[in-house]
Specification:
The chain is an alpha+beta fold. It has one domain: tt1808, chain A, CATH 3.90.1570. Helices cover 26% and strands 30% of the residues. The strands form 4 sheets. It has a 6-stranded mixed beta sheet, with helices on both faces. The protein has a two-stranded antiparallel ribbon with strand order 1-2. A two-stranded antiparallel ribbon has the order 4-5. The mean pLDDT is 89.
């Protein structure tokens, strides 16, 4: 970033048009005041996000645990300069949701659970940065879904990770007690 570049705030990002210079739709995130444009995702990403939103959402609703947010919901994970991440799937506990005053704005904290589904264009450094931002802002778990490998990396801190394969079951642990999802079912949705 050059010294003459003006940093963007979370409120400014919320009002920005989601179009690139050619008029094509794009997603926007904010990292330390700098806008990052992302193109729409492909079908694999969409299917996995939908399956995870349904599985988590059904469980959370049935047990009255909080709220599950679908892709594109923005969470403010840093202030001054602001960072806003559009999580692919997110869970926020009922207790934390009670403190949200304005739902028409980005949520003012990181989700308890952030789920990112990798796209072919995601880089390792980009994902490492997001994982660090989530945990620094209070996330309790981060799941990185890897479609090509048919695996999920379950982070309980920026350095503590467990890799689950297609034969494994992902569990909610103390964050979502009783939640289980067989990864063969999740990735099986890609075979339809």
């Amino acid at each position: 970033m050059s010294s003459t570049t003006r940093l963007v705030t979370a409120d400014e990002l919320l009002s920005m048009p989601h179009r690139d210079e050619q008029g094509n739709y794009c997603l926007l995130e904010l990292i330390r005041g700098e806008v990052r444009r992302m193109s729409p995702t492909g079908g694999t990403h969409g299917i996995l996000c939908t399956e995870l939103t349904i599985a988590l959402g059904s469980f959370v609703k049935a047990h009255g645990l909080g709220t599950v947010f679908p892709p594109e919901t923005g969470f403010v994970v840093e202030r001054d300069p602001d960072s806003v991440l559009g999580v692919d799937v997110a869970f926020v506990s009922k207790e934390r949701m009670r403190g949200v005053e304005k739902l028409d704005k980005f949520l003012p904290f990181a989700p308890d659970l952030a789920v990112e589904v990798l796209s072919p264009r995601n880089t390792v450094s980009e994902m490492d940065e997001k994982i660090a931002l989530y945990f620094a802002a209070g996330s309790r778990q981060v799941w990185i879904v890897k479609p090509r490998r048919r695996a999920v990396a379950v982070y309980t801190s920026p350095t503590e990770v467990r890799i689950l394969g297609e034969q494994d079951t992902i569990e909610g642990g103390d964050l979502l007690p009783g939640f289980e999802l067989r990864l063969s079912e999740l990735f099986g949705a890609l075979e339809r």
